[in-house]
Design goal:
Strand content: 5-15%
CATH superfamily of the largest domain: Multidrug efflux transporter AcrB transmembrane domain
CATH architecture of the largest domain: Up-down Bundle
Number of domains: 3
Helix content: 55-70%
Structural class: alpha/beta
Number of strands: 5
Order of helices and strands: HHHHHHHHHHHHHEHEEEE
Radius of gyration: 26 Å
Largest sheet: 5 strands, mixed
Length: about 525
C-alpha cells in the first residue's frame, strides 16, 4: 500500500501543477506532455530514498515510531531536499529560454517538482507513519485485522504466507529482490575484489575517451528536417537551409546550471572535498552526455538544450545519494565503509533508475523528434548517473577514505577532530554478559542517545516494556559515548542497567545514573 501512496504523490503533484500553471494563463504546449514521465520518475526516486531511511532506522522493538520517523527525515529528508532543489533550479534556468515551448515546459515541470516534494513530506510521510502504527499493532496490510506471527503457524500454507507476519527487525527484512541482489553483486564482484576495481578503472578510462571524442565532434544547430516527415517538401528545403539556422547560447545555459548546482551542493553538503567530488562527477556525466549525443546522432540545438539543462539537475541526484550515505555511515575500515555506504544507498539508486527507465521507455514508441530526443538524452542521464553512482564514485570515495577517517594517532593516541566522523557501532551480544562494549557510540545531539544505545546493545529501552514488574537486573555496563558537535569531540561514559525478562534472556535497558568522566 505504501507503493501506491508513493506513486500517488507525484501524480497529485502533476495534477496540481497543471491546474495552478494553467490558472495563471500559461499555455499547455505539446512538449509539456513529457512532464508526467519526468515527475513520476522524480517522485518514485524520493519514495525509495524515504523508504530506505525508515528501513535503516532502529527497529520498532528498540525505538518508538516518533524516533523512527525522526531518523528517517534526518537521514533521507536532506537527500530528497537536495535533489528536489537542484531539479527545481535546473527547470528555473530553463524557464529563462526565449523559446515559448521550452519556457512553458520548464514552468509546468518546475511547479510539478515543487508540489511533488510537498506531497512527499505531507502525504507520503504521514502514510509511512500510519503504516508504522499498523505494523506495531500487527495488523494485516489490506484488511487491517490482527494477524498471528508466522512462527505460530507450523505448516507452510497459503494462510501462512498471506495472513501471518512479523515485525521487521532490520533492513534485510523489508528489502525487495531488486534492492538486495543488484547491490550485492556490485559489492561482491566489482567493488570488493582488486580485479573488480581494476576493471572499473579500465571501463572509466574507455568511457572518458569515447565521451571526449564525441564531445569534440558534436555538431551544433537544429536540423529542421527532423521535425517533419521524411516525405515532406519542407524536409528537403530544411536539409538545404539548416546551415543558416541560429540557436541560443546553449553552452552558457549549461554552465549557469552547473554553477547553480555547485552552490546548492555547498549549502547542503558542507564538506569541501565532497563538494569537489560531486562537481567533478557532474562534469564527467555531462561530458558523457555530450559525447554520446554525437554517437547517437543528436545535435546541440534548442530542442536538446532543454534536455541538457534538465540533465544537470538529474545528474546530481544519484551522486548526492551515495555521497550522503558515505558521510553518514560509521567505520574505520576502507572496505567496510564502502560496503556500508553502498548497502545503504545502492538499493534506492537501482530502484529509482529502473523505475525512471520504465517511465521514459514509452517515449521510444513516439514518432516525434522532440519526444525521441528527450528519451535518448534522459536515457543517457540515468545510465551514466547510475554508472557513476554504482561504480566510479564509490571507488573514488574508497580511494580517498584517509581524508575522511578518524583513525587514532599512534604517537599521542588522540583522535583528531574532523567534519566527517566514522565510528563503528557493532551490535551487543545478548548472551554475552562479559562483553566490554569498548567501541564508542557517537551522537550529535542528546535526542539520538537512546536510539543509538538501543541499536548498539540490540536491546529495547525499558520505557517500551509493559511488564516492568517482572524484570530482574542482570548487570551494569559502562558504554563510551562521543558527542560530536561541529569539529569538537567530547568523550564520556554512560552507565546502563540491563534487565532480563521472565524468560531469563536480556531484553531491556535504562540509564543507571548521570554522565561521568
Amino acid at each position: 500500500m505504501l507503493g501506491l501512496a508513493g506513486a500517488f504523490a507525484p501524480i497529485l503533484g502533476i495534477g496540481s501543477a497543471l491546474g495552478a500553471v494553467s490558472a495563471i494563463g500559461i499555455k499547455f504546449t505539446s512538449i509539456v506532455g513529457v512532464m508526467p514521465f519526468l515527475v513520476v520518475g522524480i517522485g518514485i526516486d524520493d519514495m525509495f530514498i524515504l523508504m530506505s531511511g525508515i528501513a535503516e532506522a532502529p527497529s520498532l522493538g528498540a525505538s518508538s515510531i516518533e524516533e523512527r520517523m525522526r531518523y528517517m527525515l534526518q537521514k533521507s529528508g536532506i537527500a530528497i531536499t537536495i535533489t528536489s532543489i537542484t531539479d527545481l533550479l535546473a527547470f528555473g534556468i530553463g524557464a529563462t529560454s526565449v523559446f515559448i515551448s521550452i519556457k512553458n515546459f520548464c514552468i509546468f515541470t518546475g511547479v510539478a517538482v515543487f508540489f511533488c516534494y510537498l506531497n512527499q513530506l505531507f502525504f507520503l510521510c504521514p502514510a509511512i507513519c500510519l503504516n508504522e502504527k499498523r505494523t506495531r499493532q500487527k495488523r494485516h496490510f489490506l484488511s487491517c485485522m490482527k494477524i498471528k506471527s508466522s512462527n505460530e503457524v507450523s505448516k507452510a500454507s497459503l494462510h501462512k504466507y498471506c495472513c501471518t507476519g512479523d515485525i521487521p527487525e532490520n533492513r534485510g527484512d523489508v528489502e525487495s529482490a531488486l534492492e538486495k541482489y543488484p547491490k550485492l553483486f556490485v559489492i561482491r564482484f566489482l567493488l570488493k575484489p582488486i580485479l573488480g576495481k581494476i576493471m572499473i578503472v579500465i571501463v572509466f578510462m574507455a568511457y572518458i575517451g569515447a565521451s571526449v571524442y564525441g564531445a569534440i565532434n558534436l555538431k551544433q544547430g537544429l536540423s529542421l528536417y527532423n521535425l517533419v516527415s521524411d516525405h515532406s517538401y519542407f524536409y528537403k528545403y530544411s536539409v538545404w537551409d539548416e546551415d543558416y539556422f541560429t540557436t541560443e547560447p546553449i553552452i552558457t545555459f549549461v554552465g549557469v546550471a552547473l554553477a547553480v548546482m555547485f552552490v546548492i551542493t555547498i549549502l547542503f553538503m558542507p564538506h569541501p572535498l565532497m563538494v569537489f567530488i560531486v562537481t567533478i562527477t557532474l562534469v564527467s556525466i555531462l561530458t558523457g552526455i555530450f559525447g554520446f549525443m554525437h554517437i547517437w546522432d543528436l545535435t546541440l540545438s534548442s530542442i536538446t538544450m532543454i534536455h541538457l539543462v534538465i540533465s544537470v539537475g538529474f545528474s546530481v541526484d544519484f551522486s548526492v545519494h551515495i555521497c550522503h550515505a558515505f558521510l553518514t555511515v560509521r567505520s574505520e575500515k576502507r572496505d567496510k565503509i564502502l560496503q556500508l555506504a553502498f548497502d545503504k544507498a545502492g538499493g534506492p539508486i537501482f530502484n529509482a533508475a529502473f523505475s525512471s527507465l520504465l517511465g521514459i521507455a514509452m517515449l521510444g514508441l513516439s514518432q516525434s523528434y522532440i519526444f525521441q530526443s528527450f528519451g535518448k538524452v534522459m536515457f543517457l542521464v540515468i545510465g551514466f548517473g547510475l554508472l557513476h553512482a554504482a561504480l566510479f564514485l564509490p571507488l573514488v570515495l574508497w580511494f580517498l577514505f584517509p581524508c575522511f577517517s578518524t583513525k587514532k594517532d599512534d604517537k599521542n593516541n588522540i583522535q583528531k577532530p574532523t567534519p566527517l566522523f566514522s565510528i563503528c557501532a557493532e551490535k551487543y551480544d545478548k548472551n554475552d554478559l562479559s562483553q566490554d562494549n569498548k567501541e564508542p557510540i557517537q551522537i550529535s545531539n542528546i535526542i539520538d542517545l537512546n536510539v543509538e544505545i538501543s541499536r548498539k546493545l540490540n536491546l529495547k529501552h525499558i520505557s517500551s516494556c509493559t511488564h516492568s514488574a517482572n524484570l530482574s537486573l542482570k548487570c551494569i555496563q559502562s558504554i563510551p559515548v562521543v558527542y560530536a558537535i561541529d569539529k569538537v569531540l567530547a568523550y564520556t561514559h554512560k552507565k546502563v542497567a540491563i534487565y532480563s525478562s521472565g524468560k531469563h534472556e536480556l531484553s531491556y535497558w535504562e540509564l543507571f545514573h548521570s554522565l561521568e568522566d
